[in-house]
Amino acid sequence: MDDLLRDLSAQEYKDGFVTEVAQEFVPKGLNEDIIRLISAKKGEPEWLLEFRLGAFRKWQKMRPPFWGHLRLPRIDFQDIIYWAAPKRPEDRPNEIDPALMETFDKLGIPLHEREVLAGVKPKGEVAVDAVFDSVSVTTTFRKTLAEKGIIFCSFSEAVREHPDLVRKYLASVVPVGDNYYAALNSAVFSDGSFCYIPKGVKCPMDLSSYFRINASGTGQFERTLIVADEGSSVSYMEGCTAPMRDENQLHAAVVEIIVEKDADVKYSTVQNWYPGDAQGRGGILNLVTKRGICKGTGSHLSWTQVETGSAVTWKYPSTILKGDYSTSEFYSVAMTNHWQQADTGTKMIHLGRGTRSRVVSKGISAGHSENSYRGLVQMGPAAEGARNYSQCDSLLIGSLCGAHTFPVIRSRNPKAIVEHEATTSKISEDQLFYCNQRGIAPEDAVALIVGGYAREVLSRLPMEFAVEAQKLLSVSLEGAVG
Amino acid sequence: MDKRVYVFGRDSVPQYLRLEAGEELMMTLVMLPGTDLRIPLEVDLVGPGASLDLAGVYLCPEAEHVDLRVLVRHTSAGCHSRQLFKGIVGGTADAAFDGLIYVARDAQQTQAYQENHTLLLSETARVESRPQLEIYADDVQCSHGATTGYLNPDELFYLRSRGIPEPEARRLQMIAFLAPVLNRLPEELIEEIHAGLS
Hints:
Chain A is of the alpha/beta class and about 475 residues long.
């Protein structure tokens, strides 16, 4: 492990390469014609175009949120390309561009089902939906999943093949006018993943989406919709990377999760967008709305996130606990270095009786970065016997960074209990000395201590992800000590 | 050490305090039932070694609106601050606590703690708690904790099983809950608060 850490700390952002793929773009800028064009390119039905236009009209009347503890560069929404897709030669539509294949290979994403089937890859299969700029390029294992009645495909396909499901659930958790960036996403969203687990089905493998921003001057606006019907269960993973560029690129996604009675959804993210360079130039602006609803009795939704990337993170995966006795958890590690800024946390909205939630957030700030936890725990009048426990710890590495905690607790119920605690501290000299004394170099010692600090969250991640996250943490820490 | 007790509505309560090097202040704020308040309080710890021990109790059994905003700002190294706020909210009252600990870049070796606990007694009451930390120095120990809850039914049962009537038992529970703050007050004020709990 030590060697691994050392190798990794020698490199900077390893996913920063650019892939040369023939791509098609729509013109820069945003207006109703662009939206019609995107919709036409995707061959969308009329109702979806209306949905987009409605969202766009709302968005024009809205203002960007200003309450984050963030210094956001001014975003010129007319200077962004809202649609970029790898060109698929008409004559061989079934093959993936080799350059694209290479990209996903570099990222370590197994797109070849053959490998798994041939036994090259061990068990513990993962079905992958890969999204490259604006379109989903491939989804694996569809047949295996289809046998169980599970739908896992790109969003565009879902619109074509399962319009009733999409129409029923789209924007049911994150309404179009929910916030500025969600409205923008609703107007211009390009692709994303759709997942439906039918009644009583336990998904036999982990489902995974990989998002990659490649083209310059573009934004990525994907939309994910996960529906777990009664008694079903699924574990869903999301990963993301982008090339190194001097410009800020916008990523405004919306994720909606619907958890019906007794269903169980586990949603894990390892976010590794390009964070900008050591001087704070470039990097992704990650302005994301993620929300799930525990609709039915006894449903369960668990969020796990590891945030190491993006120049600015504005993200609050939330759960509405509507069903009685539903439960939700939020586990997060947010690591910022150099000039990164993160304002992230969660919202737990308890509506049903006996609902329970648990929040564990670990922030690590180094360099000149700013790392904030922002959370809301709300107990509604009917949330009798509801309970929440939140714990937010911050670790400071270096004297130029900031760590902040902004929780809000609201209770309207005399039968509900909310507990919140937060601490802020640094890696103690004693711990460092102890490691040094045993021959562990300062940088390794910090990686070790941070690994231990974040373990509670990392241990919640699916296996492959946990290893990746551990590596990422140590890479992000590079240059933070000494 | 400078010890001060303020009762809102009776005493004139400062809104801004500044603690110089080595100054120590122990301050207790009391909000009795029937007080509608919106209190901003700012304390700056500007000299090394300054120390603040701040506590407060708010009692809102009827239709009070209480909005407490406390800002403790550490701008110098080696200062300590401790805050403890306890509230009981019933009836149709509405109580909010907003407490921010701010630690400036040079305020190393800061120790700052903040606690806010609230009991919610009725279905029509509302509480909100916003304990916040904004920290720009690394060699610090800061923490905060906040809870909202209700009178524990097991404790109530214990007391009743020993022959204590329910109203009296509930009163004892509330007294116990407030005790850490009430202990800092003069005897007659404690009596007055005890008498007011029912």
